[in-house]
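Hello,

I think I submitted the oxa(dethia)-CoA job twice by accident. Can you confirm which output corresponds to this input? Input:
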Amino acid sequence: MNLERTKQIKAAITAVGGYVPETILSNQDLEKMVDTNDEWIVSRTGIKERRILEDPEKATSFLAIEAAQDLIATFNIDSTTIDLIIVATVTPDMPVAATAAYVASSIGANQAFAYDLSAACSGFLYGMSTSAAYINSGRYKKVLLIGADKMSSIVDYTDRTTCIIFGDGAGAVLFEPSPNEFGWEDEYMRSNGTERMSLRIKAGGSLYPTSQTTLDNGWHNLYQEGKTVFKYAVSEMAEASEQLLKRNNLSGEEIDYLVPHQANKRIVDATAKRLGLSDEKVLMNISYYGNTTAATIPLLLNDNKSNFKKGNKLIFAAFGGGFTWGASYLTWAI
Ligand code: UT7
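Support: Only one job matched these inputs. Its output is below.
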């Protein structure tokens, strides 16, 4: 690879889009489904409501296509010029074939190759690393990264510790060579597979193929050891972000926005506190979308895109199943 060329091409986010379904599932609705209450959910997670894609015939691809089309329309993108589409998701339409390929065909990206990326709640963060690397290398010029999850398709609505957290949604960003000096700056990525059982869908893969046993035991639903995940998330998301700031000689005051995965408001608060960030710099959408897994970060970007100014310093951070986690640093280029 031509290293000089790698250094010269800076990857930047040049377009953003998003979509959430219309149906709202409020804490009050959940009170009628499981033994919970609004006060508990708000104080423990920060969530008031989440969106649900009710139509059983619509899957994650529907959310992803809507988000991509929003980006295409808002930023006037010619879909035939897209080189690659990556869909970060834990709820692909089917185990085979890739949801991304269906999305590509549906939006007219007929020159693109396309694949799914699986890294749970860190899926979008990992996808940004991959997308930026393709641009940095000079290999491709337009990478469409979509984070999309129909979490309602895998959540057990009798498990009160899990069903209150998740919602459905999708967000999309376009990576291109930067038109200026701003864009992808640095990243700090990690994983720890020894904790894979702490946040999982146990069956339906090659370890536990679908059987009467897996069905009877509910192993096709999402399950998490809430406390274990919480403990790791609090320490690792903050640690990754702190290391990244240190490496780039940045203080909390110099950061314009923290764009954190929305798993639990308390996890985000702990990260923000460790970085010394004031509340107005911390982007949040958990109260009205819940945890949309791969979609939280691009939805934050979409909801706040009109506030960003060229040169703004953004820190992204995520933690999720795997375990997977990390942080990345980007300066806003548009
Ligand atoms: O994005 C992917 C990564 N996922 C995460 O980061 C999730 C991380 N974990 C969490 O966010 C939190 O652990 C939860 C929100 C899942 C749970 O909050 P917690 O403060 O850790 O609660 P807990 O599990 O320690 O439970 C405290 C109490 C228990 O009752 P007892 O044993 O103290 O009597 C639970 O049974 O709260 C009870 N509880 C509930 N009460 C009302 C658990 N779920 C509920 C509920 N409503 N929905």
